[in-house]
Amino acid sequence: MASWAEYRACLQDKKFLVSVFVGVLMLISSMIINFYAGIYTVERASNSVTDVILSNTRTMDVDGIFIYGSFLFWIFVIILCFLRPNRIPFTLKSIALFIFIRSIFISLTHLGPFPDQIYINPESLINKFTSGADLFFSAHTGLPFLMALAFWNQKSLRFFFSVASVIFGAVVLLGHLHYSIDVLSAFFITYTIFHLSELAFKKDRAIFLNG
């Protein structure tokens, strides 16, 4: 955990504050783009297709983990960032880049949801972030893996985030909320996004690692 002196130093560092502000703007912008991309995918959604996993497994009621597990996960990430404020800029910007790139992907592929997917209450807060037709690729799988890569040098966090990624991947498959290709591709695409983030935000990554 950061000391009060470290917090004070961050608050007095104009470059750090500007970087955080830019990260927040990037995150908000990416979420707005994602929102409209989600609307577009719903309007353009076509028929569902068969899937080697979904077609051979029954749907399981995993909406509790899908919804509340996601919120608990992000509360944990927020706590990690506030414990070490040096983590904030890179975390914000890498997540923003992930959401932006995923918005492009979901706009390109218009498969309809699998017909027997579990019911998610439309009033649920999570539906503010997903349209249900934004399938390729799985954010529930990719974002925890992105955090695993970001915290790779810390063994316990690397293990936690990697396990979370696999669990959420299994959850969306068991609930028939994503096709298997959405889940499997998320690991490969996220790996690329992480390295793009390292290239694009070198100074923030250095601060993340050295703080």
TrEMBL record:
<feature type="transmembrane region" description="Helical">
    <location>
        <begin position="65"/>
        <end position="83"/>
    </location>
</feature>
<dbReference type="InterPro" id="IPR025749">
    <property type="entry name" value="Sphingomyelin_synth-like_dom"/>
</dbReference>
<keyword id="KW-1133">Transmembrane helix</keyword>
<dbReference type="Pfam" id="PF14360">
    <property type="entry name" value="PAP2_C"/>
</dbReference>
<keyword id="KW-0472">Membrane</keyword>
<feature type="transmembrane region" description="Helical">
    <location>
        <begin position="135"/>
        <end position="152"/>
    </location>
</feature>
<feature type="transmembrane region" description="Helical">
    <location>
        <begin position="16"/>
        <end position="37"/>
    </location>
</feature>
<feature type="domain" description="Sphingomyelin synthase-like">
    <location>
        <begin position="133"/>
        <end position="197"/>
    </location>
</feature>
<keyword id="KW-0812">Transmembrane</keyword>
<feature type="transmembrane region" description="Helical">
    <location>
        <begin position="159"/>
        <end position="177"/>
    </location>
</feature>
<protein>
    <recommendedName>
        <fullName>Sphingomyelin synthase-like domain-containing protein</fullName>
    </recommendedName>
</protein>
<feature type="transmembrane region" description="Helical">
    <location>
        <begin position="95"/>
        <end position="115"/>
    </location>
</feature>
